[in-house]
TrEMBL record:
Organism: Nocardia ninae NBRC 108245
Domain Bacterial bifunctional deaminase-reductase C-terminal: 33-235
Protein's UniProt name: Bacterial bifunctional deaminase-reductase C-terminal domain-containing protein
One Pfam family from the record: RibD_C
Pathway in which this enzyme or protein is active: Cofactor biosynthesis; riboflavin biosynthesis
Keyword Secreted part of the UniProt annotation: no
Domain of life: Bacteria
Keyword terms, alphabetized: NADP, Oxidoreductase
GO molecular function terms listed in the Swiss-Prot or TrEMBL record: 5-amino-6-(5-phosphoribosylamino)uracil reductase activity
One annotated GO biological process: riboflavin biosynthetic process
Lineage: Bacteria, Bacillati, Actinomycetota, Actinomycetes, Mycobacteriales
InterPro entries in alphabetical order: DHFR-like_dom_sf (IPR024072), RibDG_C (IPR002734), Riboflavin_Biosynth_HTPR (IPR050765)
Keyword NADP: yes
Length: 250
């Protein structure tokens, strides 16, 4: 008897239009926050390259998909360490992209939402000085009052979640209260690991580049507990450089 095996849709990147990519990465119909994580990794599982950032691994198609995933999202969610290491600025959307977002009923530009227990972000960083929409800072009641006030004075929307740690359930509730259901999480490993072990990660989009990095680079998740979160592969895009872009969904 032949087993019923779900085979992912494998497609060549050659000739893929923006509409084709949109069809491949469209969100499902949802009434609550859907957490989609996006990462790039090497063949040996490294989440960063020699530079210590993910940009050392990214490819042209990976960057194109990253921009599309942001365009489809209500909000870009990121941990504070990644926001600092990658020198985050506000999301940028082309005029055509903003028009497509309006057609979908989305705001022209998605805000960046940073998860930080200590609110230890520089109010003079690009996150706050190079953005067209105010970032959202999810933090805690125990974070320094001065830090939270400085971020608010710099234009951020500061939201306290919990006394001294940010619980995943509280984070999801806050996103829902803000009407932010289509969530693209861009790391880092600690935030994504927390979402995975709490079974709040609905989807993983991962680009695997044909490079072995070695060294002590981190993985895409980092947690104190095992997640045991099973996913099914929806598609794999194979690029001309042999990199593979896969979409995994619970």
């Amino acid at each position: 008897m032949t087993k019923d095996i779900r085979v992912p849709y494998v497609v060549s990147a050659h000739g893929l239009s923006d509409d084709d990519l949109t069809d491949l990465y469209e969100y499902p119909d949802i009434s609550r926050p859907w957490i989609r994580a996006n990462f790039v990794a090497s063949l040996d599982g490294a989440a960063t390259g020699a530079t210590g950032t993910s940009s050392g691994l990214a490819t042209t198609l990976d960057h194109r998909v990253l921009q599309l995933l942001r365009e489809l999202a209500d909000v870009v969610l990121v941990g504070a360490s990644t926001a600092r290491a990658e020198n985050y600025a506000g999301a940028r959307v082309t005029s055509a992209g903003a028009a497509r977002r309006r057609t979908r009923g989305l705001a022209p530009v998605p805000p960046i939402a940073v998860v930080t227990g200590r609110a230890d972000l520089d109010p003079n960083s690009r996150l706050l000085t190079q953005t067209s929409v105010p970032p959202i800072i999810f933090t805690t009641a125990s974070a320094a009052t001065t830090s939270k006030r400085n971020l608010a004075d710099a234009g951020a929307t500061v939201i306290e979640l919990g006394a001294d740690r940010i619980d995943t359930g509280d984070l999801l509730d806050a996103l829902a209260d803000l009407g932010l259901h289509r969530v693209i999480c861009e790391g880092g490993p600690r935030l994504t690991g927390q979402l995975a072990v709490d079974h709040a990660l609905d989807e993983l989009c991962i680009t695997t580049v044909p490079t072995i990095v070695g060294g002590t680079s981190p993985r895409i998740t980092d947690s104190d507990r095992h997640a045991a979160l099973m996913m099914a592969c929806r598609h794999i895009i194979v690029d001309t450089d042999s990199s593979q872009l896969a979409r995994w969904v619970r």
